[in-house]
């Protein structure tokens, strides 16, 4: 396993998280995350052999509800679109995913 | 000042007609006008006329209502959705977001007749322990305006301390209720995970987030919790456990209870004055008939890595929804601290590192659950510090991201486990800065924690001290 963080890793992670990061920021974040991830890496020293993972601590399993429409929670189309900057005929407008050649 | 009174005293005064809810609300706004410009606790102040209208309605209903909080003014951390009222989470990303629905906790308080005065400043998205990571300017500590109020629920704590509100709802993912309570000399309860609905609470780390009361006293917190606790069909992680009468149970005997002092929480790194104050508190508890015993929690050192691997992982996923398309501004508006946390989480979850970081932390989380279970099998509660130091100077923590994270050392390990923790004032430094302690208990043992805290506040008066602003 590679444990040493590289500047390329930061660039990759920023891209995965869709964070616009400038060149100067990249350098700064790299230094900072190196020290933070370095500190957190001490968890490797802990023996967790045969220990199951815990992802939630509610003690609840399989919480069901009736598959019915709850009209109290329905938003109107106007309410749904009220906070967007870009709309068109009742739709959200998004950037194209594929470029037109 | 009316607002020096506890909720129970306010309720009696309202019922006897000694004063009205309108009087209370007017007093809050007078204080907000003079004090808020100095401490910067509010992001949004509700129009006074709207609050007064609600107060008048409450005054009419007083005689024949059985609500615990009818006519009592409160504020919400700006992490809770409030229908038709700006909700920012202290981030420019949500600078103009008007929610189309309200959080369950807000709805419950509205239904109870409590009166919302404002939405409070905080660390954006809950990312911080000092209320400096906000796009609305830092919250200043009312005990010393050059220092931070703590965070992330800094605005609510500062507003309670300065009597701009009677109580507040905070949110605690890794200390966010307890830390500012301790640094502002107020009382705050991080509830058991699932005790209070998270519906409409802007998510930081979904498996850690807990919604809880902040007030002047432990008794106030019991009044608030009794109103907001309980299962909510809109939050599948909210617990079906019945809600006891926390208020009634406050005066039950604490004699014979055992409180553990985990020695690892009192080692080097803890400020001497804070350590002494908590040991002094332990002596007071002993006088109440509580047994104090030293115990060991050897996993202590791994608390920060577990928290700061899982928390950022969950936040990287939760904050992925802020795309600027359906609501809010684009992702370039995240602060650097928030970007760092998103990147740490994305890294811990990414291919090649998942096993070494995220999975490892989830396994360590299991060990922490066991460690707390073991400690709380031999004691009813644990007594611990909240902060390693008194409130820091504004700017001090922000200059070093790692130090900023380490300031949460005592409050982060409870959230991955889910246990409740009550923060109470227990002294002052020689520079007149507040000191708090936390009492941690078993899952759903809020009644025991509140009982211990209440009886401690019957024999001490730290919680009665409030700051005089210059």
Task: Describe this protein's structure.
The complex is a heterodimer of chains A (101) and B (470). Chain A has a two-stranded antiparallel sheet. Chain A starts with 6 loop residues before the first helix and ends in a 9-residue tail after the last strand. Chain A has 101 residues and is mainly alpha-helical. Chain A has a domain at 7-44: Histone, subunit A (Orthogonal Bundle). Chain A has helices spanning 7-16, 23-40, 77-81; strands at 87-88, 91-92. Chain A contains 3 helices and 2 strands; from the N terminus they run αααββ. In chain A, 33% of the residues lie in helices and 4% in strands. The longest helix of chain A has 18 residues, at 23-40. Chain B is an alpha/beta fold. Chain B has a single domain (2-464), classed as Amidase signature (AS) enzymes, CATH 3.90.1300. Chain B contains 15 helices and 13 strands. In chain B, strands 1-3-2-6-8-7-12-13-11-9-10 form an 11-stranded mixed beta sheet, with helices on both faces. A two-stranded antiparallel ribbon of chain B has the order 4-5. In chain B, helix 5 (154-161) runs parallel beside helix 6 and helix 10 (303-318) packs across helix 11 (336-349). Chain B is globular and about 65 Å long. Chain B starts with 6 loop residues before the first helix and ends in an 11-residue tail after the last helix. The model of chain B has no long low-confidence stretch (mean pLDDT 97). Chains A and B meet through helix 1 and helix 2 of A and helix 10, helix 11, helix 12 and helix 13 of B.
Element layout with pairings:
The complex is a heterodimer of chains A (101) and B (470).
Chain A: H1 7-16, H2 23-40, H3 77-81, E1 87-88, E2 91-92
Chain B: H1 7-16, H2 21-39, E1 42-45, H3 48-61, E2 73-77, H4 104-111, E3 115-120, E4 140-141, E5 144-148, H5 154-161, E6 167-172, H6 178-184, E7 187-190, E8 210-215, H7 218-228, H8 246-249, E9 258-262, H9 272-287, E10 291-295, H10 303-318, H11 336-349, H12 355-378, E11 381-385, H13 401-406, H14 414-417, E12 421-428, E13 434-441, H15 446-459
Parallel strand pairs in B: 2-3, 2-6, 9-10, 9-11
Antiparallel strand pairs in B: 1-3, 4-5, 6-8, 7-8, 7-12, 11-13, 12-13
Helix pairs in contact in B: 2-3, 5-6, 7-15, 10-11, 10-12
């Amino acid at each position: 396993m590679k444990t040493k963080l590289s500047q390329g890793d930061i660039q990759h992670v920023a891209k995965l998280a869709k964070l616009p990061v400038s060149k100067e920021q990249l350098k700064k974040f790299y230094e900072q995350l190196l020290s933070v991830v370095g500190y957190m890496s001490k968890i490797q020293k802990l023996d967790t052999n045969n220990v199951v993972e815990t992802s939630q601590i509610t003690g609840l399993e399989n919480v069901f509800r009736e598959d019915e429409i709850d009209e109290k929670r329905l938003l109107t189309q106007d309410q749904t679109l009220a906070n967007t900057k870009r709309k068109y005929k009742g739709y959200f407008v998004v950037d194209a995913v594929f470029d037109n050649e | 000042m009316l607002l020096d009174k506890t909720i129970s005293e306010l309720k009696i005064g309202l019922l006897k007609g000694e004063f009205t809810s309108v009087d209370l609300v007017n007093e809050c706004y007078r204080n907000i006008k003079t004090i808020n410009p100095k401490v910067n606790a509010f992001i949004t102040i509700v129009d006074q006329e709207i609050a007064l209208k609600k107060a008048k309605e409450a005054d009419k209903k007083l005689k024949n209502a059985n609500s615990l909080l009818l006519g009592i003014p409160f504020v919400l951390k700006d992490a809770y959705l409030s229908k038709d009222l700006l909700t920012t989470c202290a981030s420019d990303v949500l600078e103009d977001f008007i929610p189309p629905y309200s959080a369950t906790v807000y709805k419950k308080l509205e239904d109870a007749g409590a009166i919302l005065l404002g939405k409070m400043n905080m660390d954006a998205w809950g990312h911080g322990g000092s209320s400096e990571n906000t796009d609305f300017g830092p919250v200043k500590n009312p005990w010393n305006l050059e220092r931070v109020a703590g965070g992330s629920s800094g605005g609510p704590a500062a507003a309670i301390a300065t009597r701009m509100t009677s109580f507040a709802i905070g949110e605690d993912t890794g200390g966010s209720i307890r830390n500012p309570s301790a640094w502002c000399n107020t009382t705050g309860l991080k509830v058991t995970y699932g005790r209070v609905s998270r519906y409409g609470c802007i998510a930081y780390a979904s498996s850690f987030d807990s919604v809880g009361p902040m007030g002047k006293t432990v008794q106030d917190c019991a009044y608030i919790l009794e109103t907001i606790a309980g299962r909510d069909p809109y939050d599948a992680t909210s617990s079906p456990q019945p809600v006891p009468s926390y208020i009634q149970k406050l005066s039950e005997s604490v004699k014979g209870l055992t409180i553990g002092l985990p020695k690892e929480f009192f080692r080097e790194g803890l400020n001497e004055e804070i350590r002494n104050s908590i040991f002094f508190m332990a002596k007071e508890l002993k006088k109440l008939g509580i047994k104090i015993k030293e115990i060991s929690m050897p996993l202590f050192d791994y608390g920060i890595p577990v928290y700061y691997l899982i928390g950022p992982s969950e936040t990287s996923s939760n904050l992925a929804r802020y795309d600027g398309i359906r609501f809010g501004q684009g992702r370039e508006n995240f602060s650097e601290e928030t970007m760092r946390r998103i990147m740490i989480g994305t890294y811990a979850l990414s291919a090649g590192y998942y096993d070494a970081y995220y999975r490892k932390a989830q396994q360590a989380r299991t060990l922490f659950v066991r460690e707390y279970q073991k400690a709380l099998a031999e004691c009813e509660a644990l007594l611990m510090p909240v902060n390693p130091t008194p409130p820091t100077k504004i700017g001090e923590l922000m200059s070093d991201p790692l130090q900023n994270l380490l300031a949460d050392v005592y409050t982060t390990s409870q959230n991955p486990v889910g246990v409740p923790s009550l923060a109470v004032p227990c002294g002052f430094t020689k520079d007149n800065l507040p000191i708090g302690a936390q009492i941690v208990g078993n899952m759903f043992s809020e009644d025991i924690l509140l009982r211990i805290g209440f009886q401690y506040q019957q024999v001490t008066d730290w919680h009665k001290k409030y700051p005089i602003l210059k």
